[in-house]
Design goal:
The complex is a heterotrimer of chains A (263), B (325) and C (265). Chain A is an all-alpha fold and 263 residues long. Helix content of chain A is 75%, strand content 2%. In chain A, β1 and β2 form a beta hairpin. In chain A, α2 runs parallel beside α6 and α3 packs antiparallel against α6. With 325 residues, chain B is an alpha/beta fold. Chain B has 2 domains: 212 residues, P-loop containing nucleotide triphosphate hydrolases (Rossmann fold, 3-Layer(aba) Sandwich), CATH 3.40.50.300; 61 residues, ACT-like. Chain A, domain 2 (Alpha-Beta Plaits, 2-Layer Sandwich), CATH 3.30.70. Chain B is globular and about 75 Å long. Classes of the chains: A mainly alpha (263), B alpha/beta (325), C mainly alpha (265). Chains in contact: A-B, A-C.
């Protein structure tokens, strides 16, 4: 465990150095990332301009949701994992996975960590400031307990989203031709920015696979605005840990099918 | 005994694609496979410190065998034992003692100096500070890359990059090293550099090395023992010098005369394969070579004279084409 | 002409070869349609009116935008940037081949496949969701819609190629593309919401930009929600942008080809 922490700290250092070597890249990434965050929040303002509540969420609560989406998915998830998942496709298709498997290291850790998008940090910071402002304007009180429980459930939300992505990306081992399989999780995790009820409105059972995603942001947000029920809390934790377990099992099972890209 | 391979067989299950859109939907649910035989009934053992060359044409099963030995592939049948481990379990204790280097794959971070990747591997392999310092110093000296390791990898030439890849793969001082086409794509000088290094490393660290290569030069210079493999089967396993004795039917006499000699006159001694002024190469049957040499030395004024084995490359080619008949 | 037809045909067979990848892409499009669809049906429930839209008119708008997307936005021309950076462009420059016609032929193949699938998907959705359907019968409006779509296709093509042409000067072609795809496409074309719900000054400003003519404008003409003078004005602006982009592209490529080769292989 200690070794993994040490390795991860080294990852952070290396990624920071890489980012500072490519300042141009870094700035465009930063700009695009922050601009997209701002516009995604603006969209909620435009869409909800004349409504008082949507899917049972008040307008102010939707503003908070837009902010927490940017903290958790647009910021944290993109910073910690997104690049790795994009990279996983090439790793498996071009045989780089061989190198990972031969390292004395948990292979799931090996393929899903290592690349960090440092610039997403800016989006997290700005979103946190935004959420505080919105909540104080709306007169929603924030206690220390709200913040702590947001952090805890945000953590579980990230685990759930990570495992959801990982399970889908593992299919690459079975279907190496699916080089754009990331379209699926990318377009589903966009759903997390809306109230989870939108998923039930779709009334299409084939999209039920997106169910975990609908909890990723909404549950921690409920914790933040003091609307969390015990059921919500239990559900997210169960889903997160369940998916994490399944992702690890499925990965090991898929690896048995891995024949390594031909030389 | 470091490596023991016992009746190793590996079949690949190849997913059979069905034509048409419905076909591809159907194959999502019900996948059909056929077997491709990559390696069949291969057995050999390798002792500590040996440097063994694996040769064979493309698709012969060399890389598959290496992947089975390193634990990437699960054998269809047969047993593999490396350092007392079953490779496919990929126990961390096992992985810390081996290394696989593939000429065309890279593990270095593209945008950073190679030194950073070395550091990362140090942590991954839990190498202590003191032994890291010692090993990396030695490796950098041996490969003469002192000036390169702090340059961004993307700015290095292919050969320089390969040297750094080797260092990254050797930081944990593996007891067993698998080299798959390490010299591919490199220029002649760089190839020689790498060969010298592999030889040096083998001696210095007493590591067991298995090497595959297209370039006979690699094998010729490095390996006492070779394993020839084709269509997944072992054709020959033994000393390189023996195979030469066994299969080389001719020797080459390389002569530089003091003055030009008539071609016709020389032709009766053997087959002239090269003739350029006073320089002549004559191919002579192995058994007669001493006799012919003596005759030439007696009869002509000679500036330089050499008896050489026929090119190893040709011998190997002969072996493969004979066996395939 | 024939060789370009072959290029388009080859692209279609390529899509059939990589059909699962194409399915992935379509799943993404359907998910995005459904999200927007249900978001709007929650925002404007039946019997209510908002921004001058009723439940059925907004849903019709959303579905038509989705269909127009496959006409106008579907394209392969974003690959220009990679072609330049990786040096593949040389292969085309050395052939008796107009590179832009080649690109456009590929686009036509891609659009053909996207339109076909969109129609199939929408038919299925119509059976399940039973959304309101609006059929325009006025021939003049239909003609003007067709014209606006063609003009939109032109604008889009030039934008893609121009974004890719950044590759002559910089390796970083993905960032401008990312910004275009996420921000401009979502907010300035009418993809996420009809532009006329925006405050008037912003809306007026957007009308002078090329982007609203990609999706919003053709759909509004089709729906018959534009006065004839608005249509004429809009069509002129749209065609103006086609010409401007065309001239710009010519300039950029003359300059770009002069320094081409500094990058790449």
């Amino acid at each position: 465990m200690k070794r993994y922490v040490k390795i991860y700290i080294l990852f952070i250092r290396l990624n920071y150095r890489r980012a500072s070597l490519h300042m141009g890249n870094f700035m465009t990434g930063l700009f695009g990332n922050v601009a997209w965050g701002i516009f995604s929040i603006l969209a909620i303002y435009i869409l909800s301009a004349r409504s008082t509540s949507i899917f049972g969420w008040s307008r102010e609560e939707l503003f908070v949701l837009a902010g927490t989406y940017n903290i958790l998915v647009g910021g944290s998830f993109r910073m910690l994992f997104a690049r790795n998942f994009e990279n996983m496709i090439n790793l498996i298709r071009l045989g780089g996975l061989d190198g990972v498997l031969l390292k004395p290291l948990n292979s799931q850790f090996g393929v899903s960590t290592g690349h960090l998008s440092i610039y997403s940090m800016a989006r997290i910071v700005l979103s946190v400031i935004y959420v505080f402002i919105v909540m104080s304007i709306a007169g929603i009180e924030i206690g220390i307990i709200n913040i702590v429980s947001f952090l805890i459930f945000g953590f579980f939300g990230l685990i759930a989203l990570y495992a959801f992505w990982f399970i889908i990306m593992s299919f690459i081992i079975w279907f190496p031709d699916l080089y754009n399989i990331d379209e699926i999780p990318y377009s589903t995790d966009n759903l997390a920015r809306y109230p989870p009820q939108i998923l039930w409105a779709m009334k299409m059972f084939i999209f039920l696979f997106a169910f975990p995603v609908s909890l990723v942001v909404s549950t921690p947000t409920k914790a933040l605005i003091d609307k969390l029920t015990l059921f919500d809390a239990g559900l997210l934790i169960a889903v997160a840990l369940g998916l994490l377990f399944v992702s690890s099992k499925f990965w090991k099972f898929s690896l048995r099918n891995y024949t390594s890209a031909s030389s | 005994m470091i490596i023991k391979v016992d009746h190793l067989t590996k079949y690949y299950k190849i997913h059979q694609k069905e034509p048409g859109f419905m076909g591809s939907l159907r194959s999502l649910v019900n996948r059909k496979y056929y077997d491709a035989r990559a390696v069949e009934d291969v057995s050999f053992t390798i002792d500590e410190g040996e440097l063994v060359g694996f040769i064979g044409p493309n698709g012969a099963g060399k890389t598959t065998t290496l992947k089975c030995l390193s634990g990437l592939l699960y054998p269809t049948s047969g047993n593999v034992e490396v350092l007392g481990f079953n490779p496919f379990e990929r126990k961390h204790d096992f992985l810390k003692k081996i290394s696989l280097v593939m000429g065309q794959k890279n593990q270095l971070w593209w945008d950073l100096p190679a030194m950073d990747s070395f550091l990362l591997n140090k942590e991954i392999y839990e190498v202590s500070d003191s032994s890291y310092k010692k090993t990396i110093g030695e490796l950098i000296d041996l490969l003469d890359v002192k000036d390169i390791v702090n340059v961004q990898v993307r700015k290095l030439s292919l050969g320089q990059r390969m040297k750094c890849e080797l260092i990254a793969a050797l930081i944990h001082e593996p007891k067993v090293l698998f080299l798959d086409e390490p010299t591919i794509g490199l220029d002649v000088v760089m190839q020689q550099n790498l060969r010298d290094f592999v030889k040096e490393y083998n001696k210095k660290f007493d590591a067991t090395i298995i090497l595959t290569s297209h370039y006979m030069r690699d094998v010729e210079q490095l390996c006492k023992r070779i394993i020839m493999i084709d269509h997944g089967k072992v054709l020959y396993d033994g000393n390189l010098s023996e195979i030469v004795k066994k299969y080389a039917t001719h020797k080459e006499l390389r002569i530089v005369f003091q003055k030009p000699i008539e071609k016709r006159e020389l032709a009766r001694l053997g087959k002239i394969t090269e003739m350029n002024g006073t320089r002549v190469v004559i191919s002579v049957e192995r058994t007669k070579s001493n006799h012919v040499a003596a005759e030439i030395l007696k009869k002509y004024d000679i500036e330089d004279f050499n008896i050489e084995e026929a090119g190893i490359e040709e011998i190997i080619r002969d072996v493969f084409s004979n066996k395939n008949k | 002409m024939n060789k370009y037809f072959l290029v388009g045909k080859n692209l279609v067979s390529e899509i059939f070869t990589y059909r699962l990848n194409f399915v992935m892409w379509r799943v993404r499009m359907i998910l995005s349609l459904l999200t927007i669809y249900f978001l709007w049906s929650a925002l404007i429930p039946e019997g209510r009116e908002l921004f001058g839209y009723t439940n059925s008119s907004i849903l019709t708008y959303i579905i038509l935008v989705h269909l127009t997307y496959s006409f106008v936005v579907a394209s392969r021309s974003y690959a220009v940037g990679e072609d330049i950076i990786q040096g593949n462009l040389s292969n085309f420059l050395l052939k008796p081949f107009n590179y832009f016609t080649y690109l456009f032929s590929k686009d036509v193949g891609d659009k053909f496949m996207n339109i076909s699938l969109t129609v199939i998907e929408l038919s299925i959705l119509f059976v399940i969701l039973k959304p309101p359907i609006f059929i325009q019968t006025d021939l003049l409006l239909l003609l003007l819609t067709a014209l606006s779509i063609l003009s939109g296709i032109g604008i889009m093509f030039f934008i893609y190629v121009l974004l890719g042409s950044i590759g002559f000067w910089s390796q970083e072609v993905w960032a401008p593309r990312f910004i275009f795809f996420t921000i401009i496409l979502n907010f300035f074309t009418g993809f996420l919401f009809p532009l006329d719900i925006l405050p008037k000054p912003i809306f007026d400003f957007i009308q002078f930009l090329p982007f609203s003519y990609l999706l919003y404008f053709p759909v509004k003409i089709y729906l018959g929600q534009m006065a004839i003078d608005q249509i004429l004005m809009g069509t002129s602006i749209s065609l103006f942008w086609v010409v401007v982009f065309h001239l710009l592209l010519k300039k950029v490529w003359t300059k770009g080809l002069q320094i081409y080769g500094a990058y790449g292989r």
